[in-house]
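> example.struct
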């Protein structure tokens, strides 16, 4: 989601005469888009901002914009600590980013045209904010309540991205499958996006398990353009911890949904938190066994990080050593499962959507390397000859 927001903000800057560079030395402007979901993320953003002080001094006319969730949380007080900062643009202000630029008086006026997306995936934000209240999470207070974008705008944006060369559309939202509109469900939207000319594949991130229902499954299971992969953050495998996190599901209801998705050919990845304050050794074991049972092909694993103002931040922390040990064990487990998931693809026929001449992704989100070179954005159908760690080799 941050990539998509960065792309959106960058597009407004491109229209004002800037060009993208990866090289800070040749840049005239640094746009720092930030995350605050864990303390570590915010810390890294702020220390980067600290390093930009010297960068700004080195050349006349350089500017710094600090954007996103850390910007939202810390607000104007950032300018006290970092007086050389030119603009602060909180995550909730992204829709007004263009006028923020114009009102700052720092940039020239926008000049026509639409910025071209780079890469084969067109990101389309369909909702922002979150109506849940997970006890560890800062997102609802930073991003605010759910706001769904109108389907007409979403479809127009997706169609435009497909026209400009994105065969894959990725729908985005904090709880993306909470999207709804009078008489229209998230599944309807997925089906409509997939029917747009030029769209080969539709992905979405991040769904909440609460909205993975039999109706949803029935509405998407016969549409092959909807990617056979779902990133479904589960956070924990212990019903007790899930209750204390206020996730709104139990281990059992979660497993039912996981099984239903797997039966329909969906590969699953997830997010997991270790060391939530009340997590016992037995709770952690339940997470390990759920991860094993679900056979996730990938998982992002995080040490619990207390966030100011959240209910869980009042609770007593577990010792850091325990968090580190559990993270280590979980990461090992996840690595083994990822390799097993890749190995299980050998011999299967797959459709690889090429992201570079020799590499692309399957619908179920495995990376595959082809023998021959192909045009980026085309779909290559081939049997899988072998798997090396987390890369499939095609037989094409
Ligand atoms: N500590 C650790 N991880 C967190 N996440 C959200 N809040 C916290 C926190 N306080 C993780 C969740 C979420 C992902 C984006 O970040 O796993 O799915
Ligand atoms: Fe945070 Fe929970 Fe909302 Fe996800 S569903 S953004 S974890 S509050």
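> example.seq
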């Amino acid at each position: 989601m941050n990539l998509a927001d960065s792309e959106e903000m960058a597009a407004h800057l491109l229209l004002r005469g800037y060009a993208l560079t990866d090289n800070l030395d040749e840049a005239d402007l640094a746009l720092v888009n930030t995350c605050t979901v864990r303390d570590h993320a915010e810390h890294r953003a702020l220390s980067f901002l600290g390093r930009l002080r010297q960068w700004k001094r080195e050349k006349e006319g350089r500017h710094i914009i600090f954007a996103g969730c850390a910007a939202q949380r810390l607000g104007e007080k950032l300018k006290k600590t970092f007086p050389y900062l030119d603009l602060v643009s909180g995550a909730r202000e992204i829709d007004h980013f263009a006028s923020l630029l114009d009102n700052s008086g720092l940039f020239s006026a926008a000049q026509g045209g639409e910025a071209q997306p780079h890469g084969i995936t067109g990101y389309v934000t369909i909702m922002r904010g979150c109506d849940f209240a997970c006890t560890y999470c800062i997102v609802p207070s930073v991003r605010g309540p759910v706001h769904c974008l109108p389907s007409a705008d979403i479809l127009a944006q997706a169609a435009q991205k497909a026209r400009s060369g994105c065969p894959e559309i990725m729908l985005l939202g904090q709880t993306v499958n909470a999207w709804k509109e009078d008489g229209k469900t998230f599944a309807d939207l997925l089906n409509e996006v997939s029917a747009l000319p030029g769209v080969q594949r539709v992905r979405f991130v991040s769904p909440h398990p609460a909205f993975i229902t039999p109706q949803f499954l029935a509405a998407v299971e016969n549409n092959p353009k909807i990617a056979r992969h779902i990133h479904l953050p589960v956070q924990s495998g212990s019903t007790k911890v899930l209750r204390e996190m206020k996730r709104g599901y139990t281990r059992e209801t979660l497993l039912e949904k996981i099984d239903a998705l797997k039966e329909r050919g969906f590969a699953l990845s997830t997010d997991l938190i270790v060391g939530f304050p009340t997590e016992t050794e037995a709770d952690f074991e339940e997470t390990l066994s759920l991860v094993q049972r679900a056979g996730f092909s990938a998982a992002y694993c995080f040490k619990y990080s207390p966030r100011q103002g959240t209910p869980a931040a009042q609770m007593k922390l577990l010792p850091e050593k325990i968090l580190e040990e559990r993270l280590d064990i979980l990461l090992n487990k996840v690595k083994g499962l990822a390799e097993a998931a890749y190995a299980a693809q050998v011999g299967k026929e797959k459709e690889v959507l090429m992201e570079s001449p020799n590499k692309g992704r399957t619908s179920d989100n495995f990376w595959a390397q082809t023998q021959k070179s192909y045009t980026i954005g085309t779909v290559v159908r081939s049997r899988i000859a072998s798997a090396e760690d987390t890369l499939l080799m095609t037989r094409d």
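> remarks
The chain has a mean pLDDT of 96.
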